[in-house]
Amino acid sequence: MSEPNSLFARIHLSQERFETFLAAPPKPPVLDANWTNWWNTRKMYSPHPLSENDLYAYNAASNKAILDGWMENKNTGTFYDYDETGQTLNLGLIFFSENYGEMIPMLSFILSLAEYKENNPDDFCIVFPFFWGDEDLSVYITFEGNTARLDAELESVAQLDPAKLKYAEDYLQRKAAEIFPQD
Fold it and tell me: What gap in Å lies between CA 46 and CA 143, rounded to an integer?
């Protein structure tokens, strides 16, 4: 049995833009070269070509409803913290998924944040085996301006910017201790 990867994202956006994003309906993903290139470089047990049928958004009235749904599942360790001073959203699912097909709607959700965010080179999203000590990197999303891109070249956490990886690991560790306290 595989162990679920963790997801972590840091996104800079104003409070107003964040509220607008939360109120908006989920944006469906569009099959394009970025999705296809990323998909084709992932290691899977049963690889198949990515098709439009594989791409889907969550079926929810709003992006806020998506986050609320994840928050209700206490086993995932979902959190989202908005820092008004730094205008930064830190979002994570401590126990997310190891299945690329299951990841697609959340990746679509994260990618759709690009049109709302500020232009900040520190923004990123990572899906990796935080708790399991593996070096494999499932997903790395970069943001430039108001666009986001699934990185098809990175395969290992060792290839990541060490400062961004440390930020993600430290944040996930702190939130895990809060959400799943040890006696």
Answer: 30
Phi, psi of 147 (to 5 degrees): -125, 155
The contacts of residue 6 (CB under 8 Å, 6+ apart) are 92, 93, 94, 95, 96, 127, 128, 129, 130, 131, 172
For the chain, the domains span: 6-179
- Do you know the residue count of the chain? 183
Torsion of CA 47, 94, 18, 146, to 10 degrees: -40
Torsion angles phi and psi, residue 90, rounded to 5: -110, 120
- φ, ψ for residue 91, nearest 5 deg: -125, 135
Distances from the Cα of 111 to the Cαs of 21, 47, 75, 108, 163, in angstroms?
12, 23, 24, 5, 22
What is the pTM assigned to this prediction? 0.96
Kindly write down the DSSP assignment for every residue of 142-170, as one continuous string.
EEETTEEEE-SS--BGGGS-HHHHHHHHH
pLDDT digit string (tens) for 135-169?
Answer: 999 999 999 989 999 999 999 999 999 999 999 99
For residues 80 and 90, the answer to whether their CB atoms sit within 8 Å is yes
